[in-house]
Amino acid sequence: MIETISEWFWWDRLWLPFNLTWTDLEDKDGRVYGKVSDLYITLPYSMGFLIIRYIFERFVATPLAAFLGLREKTKQNVEYNAILEHYYASRSKTPGKVDITGLSKKCGWSSRHMERWFRRRRNQERPGVLKKFREASWRFVFYVGAFIGGIVALYDVSISPLPLSILESQYWYYILEMSFYWSLLLSITFDVKRKDFKEQIIHHLATLTLLAFSWCANYIRVGTLVMLVHDSSDVFLESAKVLNYAKWEKTCNSLFALFAVVFMVTRLIIFPFWIIHCTWVYPPDHYPVFFGYYFFNAMLGILLMLHIFWAYLIVSMLKKLLFGSDGCEIYAN
């Protein structure tokens, strides 16, 4: 049963053009191609990333935060109330007036006391600025390194005598990027939970699927471009977050504006009109379309839809910033 499913899943006609088989992607004549087994290492590497992140946040980001004057605000603990805790966990964190009145009668508290309890209870769950600073610092350091690695990988491809063969720089670029995204999925339960939480999960899963498929089907040059396009704007986003938490508002605003420009250019212009255009328009000129063609472009399409969603949020933030809203509050949201 399992063997039959495996044979069907790895059927040549499903993932490769009609004139290719998996045998054609075996190493020969000095050419090296991607294999599924190459990607197994990304899971243990993701655990390594979590360990490195812990060390970085504790021994680099935390002292840096202290140097910049960041202090964690003391949160007021709420008195334990079994009735309210049950309501908070099972019904709503922000009860309406009718529910407040009903709960007041059950607990023997005033409505004002009740509203204060729920407000403080919500504040208890909100991540502190130090946690946000450490997380943004870690991501900033990774994206800077990843962007430099992507540039190196593209340069190596441009001068390689065997452009279709996997180069060492491409191998490590893929392995480290995939390991990092696995680590983001593994740490998602204790990371800062943002308003686009669901979209972030979809993005990470789509990215991992896209990278794994492009590796196995030897679409590595396209995959490298996709990663580089993404990393370029993330560098400015995470640096803007770091400066926002450090209260460097003017520099933060400048970096956020730069991030918005880079994001729009790379993800809404270069990504759809160059990268997706090439993966969608040119392949049918060389061979009949197949499932892998549609699958790969569908993953790119999912990423593009997420880019459009985030672009809408970015434009909304820029409008608020330009019309005088508090910058720190905007970035926090």
Describe the structure concisely.
By secondary structure, this protein is mainly alpha-helical. The chain has helices spanning 2-9, 12-15, 42-67, 82-90, 97-107, 111-125, 129-159, 168-186, 197-216, 220-245, 249-281, 291-322, 327-332.
Molecular structure report:
- With 333 residues, the chain is mainly alpha-helical.
- It has two domains: 2-67 and 128-332, no CATH class; 82-125, Homeodomain-like (Arc Repressor Mutant, subunit A, Orthogonal Bundle).
- Helices cover 72% and strands 0% of the residues.
- It is built from 13 helices and no strands.
- The protein has helices at residues 2-9, 12-15, 42-67, 82-90, 97-107, 111-125, 129-159, 168-186, 197-216, 220-245, 249-281, 291-322, 327-332.
- α7 packs antiparallel against α8, α8 packs antiparallel against α9 and α9 runs antiparallel to α12.
- It is elongated and about 80 Å long.
- The model has no long low-confidence stretch (mean pLDDT 87).
